[in-house]
Amino acid sequence: MRSPFPTSLLFLSFRAHCFSPHLFNRHCPLALFAAQLQQSSVCKDVATGTAIHAIALKLGYGDLLFLNNHLLNFYCKCQLIQNAHRLFDEMPQRNVVSWTALMAGYVHCGQGYEALQLFAEAKKGGAWVNAFTFATAINACSALADVHDGLKLHGQAEIEGYVSNLVVGSALVDMYGKCGLVDHARRVFDEMAVKNIVTWTSMISICAQNGRGPEAIQLFAALQARNLVPNEYTFATVVNACASLGCLGAGKLSHALIIRRHCDTNEVVSSALVDMYPKCGCLNYAVKVFRRVADPKVIQWTSIIMGHAQHGLGHAGLQLFDEMLARGIQPNDVTLVGVLYACSHSGLVNRGKEVFDSMYRVYGVIPDTKHYTCMVDMLGRAGRLDDAEALIETMPMAPDVLLWGALLSASRSHGRIELAIKAAENLIELNQQLDSTYVTLSNMYASVDRWSDAVRIRREMKIRGICKEPGCSWIEVKSKTYVFFAGDQSCVHEGQIITVLQELEKKMREKGYVADRSLVFHNVEEEAKEEILGFHSERLALAFGLINTAEGSVIRILKNLRICSDCHEAFKLLSEIVSRDLIVRDVNRFHHFGNGSCSCGDYW
Ligand code: ZN
Ligand code: ZN
Q: What are residue 536's phi and psi, to 5 degrees?
């Protein structure tokens, strides 16, 4: 058998690298070789590992399956996949461990397809495979996001009775999660006889990442009921789920548990908490958690800066950025997005430009589309739409959906309809399923009397089967989440909600409120339009909150779309009328309404 290097040279290098002279102990060199190879795999010590290979060949151990498997594992772990495959081909004997090791090596090197080919070869040749081999093949499908082969393997595993096995089951759950088939993942998860904390955590993250936050939180509760001890990743995952749902109650409960387990200063957990609280409308809690971390890393700094930016507290966000720099922490690309976002939402155009221009020079970060989007948003908000357009022209990459979206909303709010139309047309070209853009574009064509274009867009929507995404808002009352849809009159408290809304409407009119009719599509009768506005989902949620929460307490509402300017106006007035702080998190940002005004300064 050939060794990868000239043997004489290796003996020299081996002596130099040799950790322990008793490696040459003639009584039991094999066990020592194995131990040393294991050590070399962990340390990625290629020189020692290859030296052992050469010595083993010299000593006549080249045919030993036990040693060859250790060598195979070593080459795979060090990502020397060609050496591994050559060894595998030359091995006179192979067993399940050899096949699995080489497959895992290929998965590890990002060559999932080769791993699947090996699996097929093993099965075809009648080689015995076990749960680990199956799991490795399934991992290859995960890495490739290849659900077709994944389903086939699932079928085979079922026939051979491996599905309830912990390793195979966990691999299947992970694979379906990566392929976005949450129901499939959940079915396997439920069928597994034995589950460990890793399986639970992966199922919770799968749910959290696929917009199934309530299920993630339920799973977390079920995990605790089984007396399983969550680890820091479980905590971070469930906190992320609370963040995406804006579930402050559930988030606080998890936080309490995290404190009890002394995990609150852990890097992963604390940054999840610092990220979660602002998203649930509680920036001050995030600051408290952040200040408890003795030595915050860039990830925690990024979360806290982003939190301030989302709440429109750009100055405070920039102060934190300066504090971070003063402590010698280098920002990464995400931190810089946060910083630009902070500038953008507080109208700090000059500072924003300064940061953008120095990104590469000072911090070594090449601006990507996210940074350009922040800049376009910032210039657009400040009414410098020509500058924004000029910046887009200089971009080295193609603008994406978010960037055109930023230009669209800026040019709309500044009445630059032609530019807005250009942005909307580009948006539709990039993503044909953007229902709200179709409606906006059609309305804009109508507003500049381009009726035939307006009709064309409406027709296109019909042909493509696109209908307007229904507005939906949710509110948490006593740790329970209630969801409201625009124009929904079927909710349990319907009568009460309508009465409250009508009373509020009357008080608003006394303060001079006139519903803005320009926002609703033009073919609706005037009065009906106003009624539709009256039933925008955030108003239903607000009325429900007013009925079901203590007087004077803060009301927090989440919305799936951007809050319309009419509701924005109404909420400002309402915060004064009901003497409460109203916090609305829409798809873009937070609005703190209080005493008749909003924290965004009507700048959103
Ligand atoms: Zn509205
Ligand atoms: Zn606002």
A: -55, 140
Domain that holds residue 550: 476-598
| pLDDT < 50 stretches in the chain | 1-27, 520-529
Count the neighbouring beta carbons within 10 Å of the beta carbon of residue 51.
Answer: 27
Summarize pLDDT for 392-432 with one digit per residue, the tens.
999 999 998 889 988 988 888 888 888 989 998 898 888 76
Residue 201 carries which side chain, given as an amino acid letter? Answer: T
* pTM higher than 0.85: no
Residue 536 falls within a domain, yes or no?
yes
> What distance in angstroms lies between residue 564's CA and the mean position of ligand 1's atoms?
4
Query: Is residue 104 one of the residues assigned to a domain?
Result: no
Q: What's the gap in Å between 591 CA and the centre of ligand 2?
A: 4
First-to-final CA distance of the chain: 70
> 516 CA distance to ligand 1 centroid (A)?
10
Structure tokens at 385: 């739409």
What tokens does 160 get?
């051979």
The answer to whether the CB of 103 falls within 8 A of the CB of 119 is yes
> What amino acid is encoded at 596 in this protein?
G
Query: Does residue 554 sit within a domain?
Result: yes
H/E element holding 423? helix 417-430
In one-letter notation, the amino acid at residue 440 is T
DSSP state of 28: S
For 354, the token pair is 């300064």
Q: Is 227 within 8 Å of 258 (Cβ atoms)?
A: no
* Number of structural domains in the chain: 1
The answer to the question of residue 459 being in a domain is: no
Report the pLDDT value the prediction gives residue 433, as an integer from 0 to 100: 63
C-alpha 248 – ligand 1 centre gap (Å): 24
